[in-house]
Amino acid sequence: MFRRSGKAGNYAYSVARVKAKKSLLMKEDDYNKMLMMSLPEISRFISETGYQKEMAELAGRIQGIDLVEHATYSNMARVFSSILQASQGELYDMVAAYLEKWDIWNLKVIVRGKSYGVDAESIREDLVPAGSLKTESLEKLISLESEEDVLTSYGKMESVNIPAEAVAEYKATGSLAAVEDFLDRNYYQKLLASIDPSSRPTRLFQDYIRKEIDLLNLQTILKLKAEGIYGEDVVKYIVPGGKQIDRKLATQLANAESLSAAAADLTQLDFYEDIKDALESETNSLRDIVAGLKKYEMKEAKTFSHLYPLSVIPIIDYMIHKENEVNNIRIIARGLESGIALETIKGLLVI
Amino acid sequence: MATKEITPTRSVLIELKKRIKLSQSGYKIMKMKRDGLIIEFFEVLEKARKMRAGVTSDYESAMDKIAIARAVEGEIAVKSAAYALKADPQVTVGSKSIMGMMVPKVEATSVHTKMVDKGYGVISTSPYIEEAALAFEKLLDTLIRAAEIETTMKKLLDEIEKTKRRVNALEFKIIPDLKEAERFVKFRLEEMERENTTRLKHLKKKSEAVE
């Protein structure tokens, strides 16, 4: 199921391409400039910084803030697809496994949309084909009659065995929770399995992913705790493979009575300093904690970005930064359009 | 009540007296009801005022949170999460009585759904979307309660207006008219009594003259 190709990757070629692209990414100054702009100015600015093709393509169908969101996603999808297509051997396996999260995202958009009765055109508009599934495969999924068919077909395309009981639960209750949780868990298992930890750079990549799992697990624990859910009911959502949060610590955190009580168990973790203020604040907002975790994630990505120039690391680093750029543009554009205070927008940005 | 239409008889006088008594007791009860409704109205008004402030603050908070969720996670992710939602809030409208007046009692179920029951996965659900969903659930809850209170307030106002009109009609029209009719009947009866006495005297005189 999680077999690696075993062929050597074309690191030199892929890294050279990515390095050139990375120099075009927006800098902190660009974000500061954008914060002072109106929406049409932002649209023009991003058109001048690499998003022109997508802005022009979509301008006939979509307008305003939605155009910015769709164009940035579309650009990211095009860039990621080109990186994936240019990769070979074990590099392809790792990049494809990393980008599978976008296939899962698209599958969720399709199944949720279909279950709600959204028309095919609207579903198509919301897809971000940044994963290994090409537009034709996604089109095929959209054209299928039922949601069960979509899940079965996706399973075949991605070699994933979606558990029959999760599909049965969807049939019986209409809830996609079991299916989606399985896909998210399976994504990390598959991604970890695609990485051969025999070399230092791949070990670093594996460590990064395991830390990402830690952050995801911590978010799950905190989200459920905020809802008053504790113990085993929380532990069942834990994704295995984390670096610092093992099952024992996860259970400990899950059993803690409150966020503040859980904070004591978090002091030993690497990212404690980044979420300390949010945990100690009176509001104890989950949003602030998550913002802290996102900033830590970006900091982690930056620390390994300059190491091992001929490895998967510069490629993953670029993809993390590209996705972050798309998120930052959207945060600024939507934030300004909704009238969110500048300070709040700055707090949401991950730079 | 036009006095011309009244037949000045004793039975009518008795009937009029009964009606005056009934109207006066009705007037007292209506006045008490009006005062009671006004007291109730002010209590509901205070609740409605607080509720309106609650609706405004909950609305602002919900809009603020959805704006942040749309900014951080994107419109597509927010829409997608909304499509997955399986629980629909159910509203049942019953009724309760305030001083004999029926007002709506709105009850809602499934307004707040736990994250694990929402219909989408727990692991990848964004806390921003979750916070926005929670804020909108709170807003919906406040709106449902506000709808009950506002409707009660409007019904109370209508009822106060109706009762006030009835009290005024009793005080300034019905009771004075009945009293006027009573006075007319009494006067006519006395007049008839006097006429009778005079007639009897004439008859007595005539019979004495014949003898």
Give an account of the 3D structure.
- The complex is a heterodimer of chains A (351) and B (211).
- With 351 residues, chain A is an all-alpha fold.
- Chain A has a domain at 1-176 and 337-342.
- Chain A contains 18 helices and no strands.
- Chain A is globular.
- The mean pLDDT of chain A is 88.
- Chain B has helices at 10-73, 75-84, 127-210; strands spanning 90-98, 101-109.
- Chain B has 3 helices and 2 strands, in the order H-H-E-E-H.
- Chain B is mainly alpha-helical and 211 residues long.
- In chain B, 27% of the residues are buried.
- The chains are: A mainly alpha (351), B mainly alpha (211).
- Chains A and B meet through helix 4, helix 5, helix 10, helix 11 and helix 16 of A and helix 1, helix 2 and helix 3 of B.
Secondary structure tally: strands of chain A:
0
**Uncertain ranges of chain B:** none
Mean pLDDT of chain B: 91
Intertermini distance of chain B = 50 Å
| Secondary-structure element pattern of chain B, one letter each | HHEEH
Q: Please state the oligomeric state of the protein chains shown.
A: heterodimer
* Widest beta sheet: strand line-up of chain B: 1-2
Mind telling me the C-alpha Rg of chain B? 35 Å
CATH class of chain B: Mainly Alpha
Classify the beta-strand content of chain B into a percent band: 5-15%
* Helix share, percent of chain A: over 70%
CATH architecture of chain B: Orthogonal Bundle
- What structural category characterises the helix and strand content of chain B? mainly alpha
Q: Examine the coordinates and then state which fold CATH places here, giving the name of the CATH topology of chain B.
A: Helix Hairpins
Biggest sheet architecture of chain A = none
Helix and strand sequence of chain A: HHHHHHHHHHHHHHHHHH
From the alpha-carbon coordinates, what is the Rg of chain A to the nearest angstrom? 21 Å
Helix content of chain B: over 70%
Quick one: overall form of chain B? rod-shaped
